[in-house]
Amino acid sequence: MPGAKQLLEYHFWATNKLLQYINDSCPEAFTREIASVFNSIKETAEHLYIVDTLWFDRIRGIEADQTNVSFESAKKALKETKELQQRLIDYLKSEDLTRIGTYKNSIGTIFENTVEEICIHLANHGTYHRGNITAMLWSMGYKSTSTDYIYFLREKNKLS
User: Fold this and answer.
1) Closest CA to 53 of 38, 69, 41
2) Which of 105, 118, 130, 115 is nearest to 47 (CA)?
3) What is the number of domains present in the chain?
4) Domain assignment of residue 53, given as a range
5) d(CA 103, CA 120)
6) 81 to each of 22, 87, 99, 101, how far by Cα in Å?
7) CA distance to 4, 48, 83, 116, per residue, from 90 (Å)
8) Residues 6+ apart with CB under 8 A from 110
């Protein structure tokens, strides 16, 4: 079974791959309004960024404050997302994944989870919303790029 750090690495790889694809192949699709879970790919990318930031704050024991972010393009989303990912990767290098963190949810209820559980949650959450983005692309008449976990493993193994 893959570890939490590997699943988080997959989340980052897949998000970056999808944003890069949009930037390179159909940048106009990024801001196009569409009836979906979110009103655009832009809003979905912003949501992913905000949630990753929120959980990174929770891992560090910082009182989560709603992050305001606005990406005018897939290129900007990719740049900002990669910077956040690198900060999270650097932080986790010395973090005990079994450490239990206490945090409040958006309505003030207190919860506890291990850092490992939070990393797995981030990967799962990202997979859900990348699926939303792929569905949006298809409904606009664009193809997408495969971000399945097995493709991540194949690429990772090829580089080893």
Assistant:
1) 69
2) 130
3) 1
4) 4-159
5) 17
6) 14, 10, 25, 24
7) 15, 19, 11, 15
8) 102, 103, 104
Our measurement of the distance from residue 127's CA atom to the centroid of its chain's CA atoms, rounded to an integer in Å, reads 8
d(CA 40, CA 97): 34
**At 105, which CATH number?**
1.20.120.450
Residue pLDDT, tens place only, 26-51? 999 999 999 999 999 999 999 999 99
User: Contact, 27 vs 74, CB < 8 A?
Assistant: yes
Per-chain mean pLDDT for the chain: 94
Q: What is the pLDDT of residues 110-124, one digit of tens each?
A: 999 999 999 999 999
Tokens of 42: 């832009």
Query: How far is it, in rounded angstroms, from Cα 136 to Cα 132?
Result: 6
83 class by beta-carbon count within 10 Å (0-12 exposed, 13-18 middle, 19+ buried): exposed
CA distance 37 to 136: 9
Average pLDDT over residues 5-18: 97
